[in-house]
Each structure stands twice: as structure tokens, then as C-alpha cells.
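A quick aside before the break. I want you to see a complete sequence-to-structure record at least once, exactly as it would be stored in a machine-readable document. Don't worry about memorizing anything.
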Amino acid sequence: MHDGPIPADPDAEAGRAPPANVEAEQAVLGAILVNNEVYDRVASLIEGRHFFDPVHARIFEVAGRRILKNALATPVTLRAFLEDDEGLRELGGPAYLARLAGAAISIHAARDYAQTIHDLALRRELMKLGDEVRDRARTVVTDDDPSEQIVAAEQALYSLAEKGKYEGGFKSFVKAAADAVDTANAAFQRDGGLSGISSGLIDLDRKLGGLHPSDLLILAGRPSMGKTSLATNIAFNIAKAWKEGERPDGTFGTIDGGKVGFFSLEMSAEQLATRVLSEASRVPSEKLRRGDMDEEEFGRFVEAARDLERIPLYIDDTPALAISTLAARARRLKRQHGLDILFIDYLQLVRPATAKDSRVNEVSEITQGLKAIAKELNIPVVALSQLSRAVESREDKRPQLSDLRESGSIEQDADVVMFVFREEYYKEREKPSETDVQKMMEWQEKMEIVRGKAEAIIGKQRHGPIGSVEMSFDGRFTKFGNLARAEGGYDDR
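That is the input. The structure line, written in C-alpha cells, reads:
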């Protein structure tokens, strides 16, 4: 038993004002009102929400709106917009704007003052978050598990670290429109090509416009269709193309390809790596497993392994992960190494955070969780999914949306639903008896048409057309590629 004095409750520390520097706020606002070019220097660092004094926040926002319209922002021009502001009236009315201009600092010092404002705002947010975590931990509720509190706190801290705030809110249409213009401009700069990450498959990129941040893409197929192979091919293409540099907005980061996270809930990391090595070295995976390679193949294998050491592809092969744990690990990967796209193989092996009364509700929680990860981390999330056996009972084996297991929530939450289909797989199983020469010849003709080909059937696309994309498929290396064109087009072999 503790005999000493009871520690003081942190809540009892009265009279401690939150960290702020009102003088720095006044100085930055004064500099903007004297020289509107200052706004461009500080706008990448601070927003209205970073100001401690709400009146200062409103002045900054009104001034910013005028400057962005190429209109003048001075004490005189802002007066009409702020003279009815109750807070400004308490500070002396429009005369306060003139006093701010009188307290202006030099253009060169403005960015340092803005950094101070930003850092203090971050400290206030951190204190607010700490208080909420402490209050939630102190309140003992039966349905609020401590492990869930840790996940929620980690999510809030991640959001605070990435965005400087941990709570959502409405975004003005002007900001949303500016983001849309930036996306369209990025596509235009690539000669009207992609606004998202390239999959490395030309026809697929043309249909999808690349893999877009905040999108949930479902890649589905029956067993042996090659959905895991297609996912690893795309993941490898993206990681291999990764480059860092200065972006159009002046920030430093990924400019091509991307850093890839791959949750392999079915296969071990070693099995997945063998597939990638088989594709990269063009040595059949069964030869890699047996070590049955000639000297040339072994040389290609060693060279591929050396090249793969440098690519940013991270694999987590923990089985039966809960959606909350998966989200926490994805956040951690982005914080520690960076993350531009996430793959999950496959959706039905992810567990819900809490057991539900039906499998449909569990899958619904998982798909909603994956979509939330895509939006929170601002990355594409590609989740593989099984299809029901209904496909096998139809004469036309091409999959459709209704074939998705627990299809309602998957179809609803996904931005893109794509099916992998290889007719060659089914035609091989229709091989007639060799004694029936006529049927054998017909079968061989059909096989010649479908051999080495595959389809990506886009059954849903929120931002574009649906339809089918043809690809090549080499079963020896489980490799999907661009289909060679008879008119002398492209071929990636």
C-alpha cells in the first residue's frame, strides 16, 4: 500500500494557458496586409485553424480568399468584410486592422513566425488528443476494450502527424476543386495519360487511368485464374518503377512507381518472394523450389535477387489479421518507410475487429475498414477476393458482380471491381478423346485462339467505363503482361 501523499490530478492544474503566441500571429497578419506576396510564402505552412485567436483566423481566411482571386487585401479592403465581426469589434473594430499593418515584420521573417504559429497549433492539438486519450482510458466501459483504445489513439496520432490535425471536417468547394484541378493537371502533364499509379500493364492503365489514391479496388477470381499472380505482378511493377524526387508542388517524395505494402494472409513471404523472383528472372517457380537450374538460369536468378534487394516492397505474412490491426500496421509502415499502395491477399481471410452475428456483416465491416484505410492514408488499396462456385455451373464462365462472395458490401464499398479470367484454363479441361479426330481438331483451333491470353474484366468503375482488357499470360512464370499487337504495337517480353 502506498503511504505517501496522493499524486496531484493533472486536471487540477488550473490556470495553465494553452501554448500560443498572439504577437507572432499579429506580426504575420500585419505583414500580409502590407505586402500580399507574404501570403504565398506562408500559405503552405499555416491555415486559419492554426491561429489561436479566432479573430486572427477569420482575418487570415478573408485575406487569403481575396489574394487567391488576385484582389488586394489591405486594412481598407478587408473592412467591408469584417466590420460586423463581433470578435473584431471587441478588439477595436476596423482600426485593429490598421494596427496590425503597423506591427508588420519583414517578408523574410514572416515564414519563421508562421512556423512558430504552426508548431504551437500542433502542440495544442497534441494536448487536446492527450486529454481525450486519458479521459477515455479513465472511463471504464464494458464495450470499450483497452486494445481498441490503443488502435484509436494510434490512428489519431498518425493523422495528427500527417495532417497537423486529427479530426475531420467539411472542406470548402474551392479547396476540393483545387485538388481536382491538380489531379487533372498531373494527368495532362503525362500527355493525357494517368492521374494514378501505373500498374505496368498498358491497356489496364488506359481503362483505369492508373490506380488512384483513396480508391478501394477489388481484384476477384476463381481459384487458378491467377488473381494472386496478377496482384504480385502489379506490385512488382510499381515497386520496380519507384523513384523519388521533387514533385510539381515543390515537395519531395515519390514521383514514379511507389512503395508497396503487401499483406499475404494465405501465402508465406517466402512463397510470395519465389513468385516475384520467378517473374523477374524468367525461371519457372518449380525450378526455383527444387534448385533445378542450369548455369544461365542461375545467373539470371542471382541477378534478379540482387535487383530485388533495392525495390521498396514490404511483405507481412501474418495470418488471420484483424482489420484494426491491419490498419495500424499500414499506418506504421507509411510512417516508418513510406507507403504508396497496399495489397491484401485476400479479403475473406481478414478478420473483423469484433465478431458479428453474420458473415455478411463481418465482410461489410472489413470492406468499410479497407476503404477507410485508402482514404486515411490517401493510397490505393487493392484487395483480392474469392468468387462463389456459381461461375462453374454456367456455360459462360466469365465472372460477374453477383458472383462475389457476400457481394452486397464488397460491390457497394469498392470503387473498382475487376475480375481475372483465363478461358484457356477451362478449355484445357474440355480436351476430347484423341480417337475423335474431328473434335480434337476443333479443340486445338479453339486452344490456339485462347492460349497465352487472359482478361481483366472491369465489372464496376466509379470514375470510368467498364469493359474487358486483354493481357498475355505466361503460366511458366505466372506472369501477366501487355498483349503483343499484330499491327506492330507493344509487347513487354
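Two observations worth writing down. The radius of gyration is 29 Å. The first strand starts at residue 216 and ends at 221. We'll return to this after the break.
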